[in-house]
Amino acid sequence: MSETTRPTDGPHQQLGDESFMSAADLRGYMDKVTLAKMNEAVEAMDRARHAKEELAKTLSQPIDLTPTKLQEITETLLIKLRAAAERGENEIMVMRFPNTLCSDHGRAVNNGDASWTDTLTGRPRQAYELWRDHLRAAGYGLSAMIVEWPNGMPGDVGMFLTWGK
Questions:
Q1: Do the bridges between strand 91-97 and strand 18-20 make them parallel or antiparallel, or are there none, so unpaired?
Q2: Whether the Cβ atoms of residue 99 and residue 71 lie closer than 8 Å to each other
Q3: Which end of the chain is more exposed for a tag (fewer CB within 10 A), N or C?
């Protein structure tokens, strides 16, 4: 048997100048790669879940609507409204939040229930009240819809400021 075709000791065989893994070694390597990818995916899902929980915690706490804060909100909103109007749009999403900030986890929003605003808590509730108290009289509308469906279940809610037809 020549040097290039003779089996060597250990899991690898030498064929010419190249080293080949056995089929079992290759399957083991593939299993390790698959496991590593699955671990990364689980870690990413955990980080996303934690970030969503932190966001919900933050948004559940109302902010102090001082005159300065209201002015800041108004200026930011005007910039976004003008940009949307220049693009020919007639709505913008003004807030996106986890459905846990609705007392019914978004059921009324998903069903188009006219009383969906009654389910809002925290900052989403404040956003609704700002619209109700300041923007509705100026002709703006407010709507909401489920904008994310993880695993086929209602997820985040989007709140939209609308105008025109």
A1: unpaired
A2: no
A3: C
- Residues ≥6 apart with Cβ < 8 Å to 59: 97, 98, 101, 122, 123, 124
DSSP string, 40-81: HHHHHHHHHHHHHHHHHHHHTS-----HHHHHHHHHHHHHHH
- CA pair distance 52, 119, nearest whole angstrom: 19
pTM of the model: 0.70
Give the H/E segment covering residue 157: strand 157-162
Please tell me the distance from the alpha carbon of residue 110 to that of residue 96, in angstroms, as a whole number: 14
Highest mean pLDDT among 4-8, 39-43, 144-148: 144-148
CB of 15 within 8 A of CB of 5? Answer: yes
Strand pairing category for 141-146 and 157-162: antiparallel
Give residues with Cβ within 8 angstroms of 113, minimum separation 6. Answer: 107
Would you say 109 and 95 are in contact if contact means Cβ atoms under 8 Å apart?
Answer: no
